[in-house]
Amino acid sequence: MQWQRSVLRAVVFVLFAVALPAWADTPESDYPITPVPPTQIELADGFWNSRMETNRKVTIPYDFQKCEETGRIANFAVAAGQLEGKHRGFWFNDSDVFKVIEGAAYSLALHPDPVLEKYLDELIAKIAAAQQDDGYLFTIRTIHGEEPFRQQRYTGKDRWSHLEHSHEFYNVGHLYEAAVAYYQATGKRTLLNVAIKNANFIDSLFGEGEGQKIDVPGHQEIEIGLVKLYRTTGEQRYLDLAKFFLDHRGVPEGRKENRVYGEYCQDHQPVTEQTEAVGHAVRAAYMYSGMADVAALTGETSYIRAIDTLWENVVGKKMYLTGGIGARHHDEAFGANYELPNSSAYNETCAAIGNAMWNHRMFLLHGESKYIDVLERVLYNGFLAGISIDGDEFFYPNPLASDSTYKFNKGSTARQGWFACSCCPVNIVRFIPAIAGYMYAKRDDDIYVNLFVPGEGTIDLDGDRIRLEQQTRYPWDGNVHIAVDPEKPKTFTLKIRIPGWVRGECVPSDLYRYENPVAEKIALKVNGKEVPLTMEKGYATLTRRWQTGDVIDLQLPMRVRRVLSNSKIAENQGRVALERGPLVYCLEDVDNAHRVADFVLPDNTPIRSRFDANLLGGMVLLEGTGIVAKMPSEAGPTETGPTETGPTETGPTETGPMPFVAIPYYAWSHRDPGKMAVWLPRNLKTLKQAAEKDKKTE
Ligand SMILES: [Zn+2]
């Protein structure tokens, strides 16, 4: 039975990933490591499968419904002349519809659904009808025609006249991604033809040729889309156009280009000279991802040098413990080095997605586990907080502390069902199904096991099918059982990622460190016998002649870890955060007898972990006893009397022990829009300083 399913999936896989269209050439050079696509993975019950099922059953239909209600879909019908009306919403709203189509296509690839497919075909027909004869597709301009309209200050009066803000290229980048996904899922070409016609039109207008325009997108994304179009069609010019858009950023010396979009759009320097991540974080992460793609396909080593340096900058100086990036609300931008405030952190959900996409590509280029360590940190923390467990409410920013009065989430202190600019909810639906594609990868005779998720993966290694079946309760415990089942006995290498957190390395930089960086004893067994850990680039490497019946058992002890910050992150001084396995924890008022704001977690306090099956779908909680402190005005006489710490002169007084409960960060804000903190004071002095700072800002 298992083999029948595997064979079926292998057939699907060939349809999907290998022999895409008959006319597509396989690129001559590509990433040295090849990911195993989600269509080769069948997840079993567990943490991610339930998220994917919620995405399929709740979030995708919900997002389409919101796109209907808000006129995003009607805009295509109006542009096509099928419906009377005006353009509704932002000028870039076409992209939201494309992103939900992409997510729905990934869902269809794994779960055939005639009702969803019919809906998509009708929607795609509207999009095709909205495309102008020359290939242009931008509903707001088509609807308004020659008439002036309010949002012209962003779109420009004429086509392509204000690319800094118009999103004309950004929108169609998402069109290309959706078109490729839908074609791969169904073999239907209608949307792919719309994408090709549009890309051909843009390619005819932009370039270094006689009479062509030189300009670049203000919001990167088309580069990623063009690469996908190139991979699908084999048309070299799409790859060249992606490279053209990258190479003309920052106005290279010797070129006369009447344009400076500046740091906000990463247009302040040529991409190969950029060394610090600046400006709008989503644009940056999409650009770095596009650079990785183009570098893999063209061998452009100057791109790789640049993104290596930018990665060191982000992971070493600009990333939150949750894997979130983009510290500032203003401009949705990266802050300065070490500017990582907690309650005012922006950390857009889309930027977390971009950071994950980028780190996956860095792994495919370099084969080092540190990139997957960052990716995993994003997945379980900074990204996952962005969507509610029920799948229909969203965070746009993701702060690491909340006082439950500051309405950080676009006017709300809690997740919201939708936003006027809804880039995040629609990005989530296309990202969640893609996560299965991060589990495995291969290179020659090596198979990489990157993520620990229960289920089966089928990997084609040099013409032989290898089936791997993982059983694990990860992220709740670190025991991973892998059954290896090759079609016939075969010698190859399994490279199993040993996460940084078990090796005593919090992040692959000195930005965060464990208070006790001891490496845990990792047990690795093959067929019940312990084998030595042979580590290579962060992977335990097992080479042998594998045969059906072979099993691997990996035990990654999940101790509660205390995290300390680099001393240059001002807000975290005197503070500690808690982690267990890949999860970052937080305290919320709702679980605790006293306010989180009054809580101090002294070093050496014992902390226990306990699985609670009933809380929010089940989770491991952390529990212990810290101390509660009050400011002098509210302290009053204490029952316990002065303690060892004693009262500070003008600061808070310790008033007693405080038993506490911490929950995984992703699960915060599900019960009430409560107060929350990731970084906790280690002593009264830190609490006092925080109170003084609050007073000043009041
Ligand atoms: Zn967003």
What ligand molecules are bound, each kind once?
Answer: zinc ion
Helix content: 25-40%
Q: Which residues sit in consecutive blocks of at least 5 with pLDDT less than 50?
A: 1-25, 635-648
Rg estimate, integer Å: 26 Å
Shape estimate: globular
Largest sheet: 11 strands, antiparallel
Average pLDDT number: 93
Helix count equals 20
Number of strands: 24
How would you describe the overall organization of this protein?
- The chain has 20 helices and 24 strands.
- It has 698 residues and is of the alpha+beta class.
- Strands 3, 10, 16, 17, 18, 19, 20, 21, 22, 23 and 24 form an 11-stranded antiparallel β-sheet that branches. Strands 2-6-7-8-15-11-12 form a 7-stranded antiparallel β-sheet, covered by helices on one side. It has a 6-stranded mixed β-sheet with strand order 1-4-5-9-14-13, with no helix packed on it.
- Helix 4 (94-110) packs parallel to helix 9 and helix 13 (281-298) packs parallel to helix 15 (349-366).
- The longest helix has 23 residues, at 47-69.
- Zinc ion binds next to helix 15 and helix 17.
